Amino acid sequence: NPATQENLQKLRQRGVHIAGPALGHLASGQVGPGRLLEPAELIGHIRTILGRTGDLAGKTIVVTAGGTQEPIDPVRVVTNLSSGKMGYALAAAAVGRGGRVILISGPVTIPAPIGLSQYVSVSTAAEMRDAVMSRLGEVEVVIKAAAVADFRPQKAARGKIKKDTTSLSLALERTPDILAEIGAVKEDRILVGFAAETDNLLENARRKIKEKNLDLLVVNDVGRPDIGFHSDYNQVTFVYADGTSEETPRLLKTEIAGIILDRVASLISRRRGRP
Ligand code: PMT
Description:
By secondary structure, this protein is an alpha/beta fold. It has helices spanning 2-13, 39-51, 85-95, 125-133, 178-184, 201-211, 253-272; strands at 22-25, 31-35, 60-65, 70-73, 76-78, 100-105, 118-121, 141-144, 151-153, 172-174, 190-197, 216-221, 233-234, 236-240, 245-247, 251-252.
């Protein structure tokens, strides 16, 4: 109705945040914009509004999430079990603290959080690398929760590979190490990596944090079925650049995301206080 549209316009001009309407089936039997938003979406809007005065207000933050898919042929890929839950929880929490959040995501089945500044959908490690590196100029914090494939088929077959042999060998090559590449041009950015380990967790983490020039490495034991890939829960160890470490209890990924951002916020304020 023109009167409703006019009133909405007036409210927008007065700075009121309008949430919705959602598209879908309406009580009138028609399909279109007119539905109340789902509760999760409403919470997303509320979180965005409340976040405006949060401790990450004005900070541009890149979060990567999900696994990458490296093509073998047009219908098959090399991938991993990442659901994107950890990275999406981080992106939503960062929005809720006022961050301008750019979420760069591999293929996942969960909805993107409300209030993102940008959502970039990628498939391969090479695409994720380009998406991250091309945005680095404007970014103050990078959090790399994505499970990037370490290896990809040397050459993707152009046609579907036939199953007329009893075995098949794939020659693999390394993908670009995005975290190491960012570490090499890091300057004043806060760089947070994840480490998905099954053995010698701390030993490997202390080596990685130095090699890749990170401020914080979040280590999770992906051999445990009750945390890590796909689970709603995680238990992590933070390893800092000076080699010290700190363990969290097993918590929801949404709670772990909040603790990670607490650490990021204190790294930012420590950096700001530096002569
Ligand atoms: O998505 P979920 O189901 O919620 O699961 C969450 C998770 C287990 C995927 C997440 O908590 C996690 O551990 N993410 C990192 C997984 C990983 O790739 O770990 P890694 O140890 O192989 O890599 C170390 C770091 O280097 C990561 O920050 C990764 O993003 C980065 N990397 C890896 C390879 C590569 N070619 N480029 C990279 O930048």
